[in-house]
Amino acid sequence: MVSTFDAPQQEDEVVLLDSAPHPAADTAEPFLVASDRRVVLTYPIAEADFERFGPFDPDDDPFCAVLFPGTVFHRLGPPGDEDLGIHPLTAQGLRGYSAHEVVNSSLCAEIAAVPPGAMPVATAAPARRHFVITFGESTFECVASDYTVIGVFGAGEIASREAFALVR
């Protein structure tokens, strides 16, 4: 079984993703829509990114939607910001309220080592990239072939609708 809480190998290197908005440090929760091999994550963006991804109306509550195609593993759950220190990638630079990629990921290596017949055919193709996005109450991790910010929207309902449309 693949576990993101196993101690990471020394090769894990956490880098910030500049092209993905930083999550907002508020109470709005991320929203996840997934199919067999495609995941879309929506979340409120940090006010510091409003100018970069805007413009927005004063009454907007901007959310982004990020697509992860070719996903072979994903999870959304603890730890949150207050207990992020328990995550094994914290020592490699994992930060709160940020989007990251783990280069030379031990999790990717662990998944690649699973014998081809042990995984369903739909997930047998190797994904090579490990992404981690940290929020106030949770952390999102996935191993996928890539990521794309599909849009930044004025409200969470719009971002969620776009997420459902992409996963169908």
Topology overview:
Blueprint: E1 13-16, E2 31-34, E3 38-44, H1 50-53, E4 63-69, E5 73-77, E6 99-103, H2 106-112, E7 129-134, E8 139-144, E9 148-153, H3 156-167
Antiparallel strand pairs: 1-6, 2-3, 3-4, 4-9, 5-8, 6-7, 7-8
Record keyword descriptors for this entry.
single chain, 168 residues, alpha+beta, 4-stranded antiparallel sheet, 9 strands, 30% strand
Question: How would you describe this protein?
Answer:
The protein has helices at 50-53, 106-112, 156-167, and strands spanning 13-16, 31-34, 38-44, 63-69, 73-77, 99-103, 129-134, 139-144, 148-153. With 168 residues, it is an alpha+beta fold. It has one domain. Strand 7 and strand 8 form a beta hairpin. The longest helix is centred in the last third of the chain and has 12 residues, at 156-167. The model has no long low-confidence stretch (mean pLDDT 87).
Q: How many beta-strand elements?
A: 9
Structural class based on helices, strands and sheet pairing: alpha+beta
- Give the radius of gyration: 16 Å
Mean pLDDT: 87
Largest sheet: 5 strands, antiparallel
Overall shape: globular
The percent of residues in helical segments reads 10-25%
SSE order: EEEHEEEHEEEH
Strand ordering within the main sheet: 1-6-7-8-5
Counted up, domains total 1
Oligomer: single chain
Tell me the number of helical segments per DSSP (H or I, 4 or more residues long): 3
Beta content comes to: 25-35%
Poorly predicted ranges: none
The first-to-last residue Cα distance is 28 Å
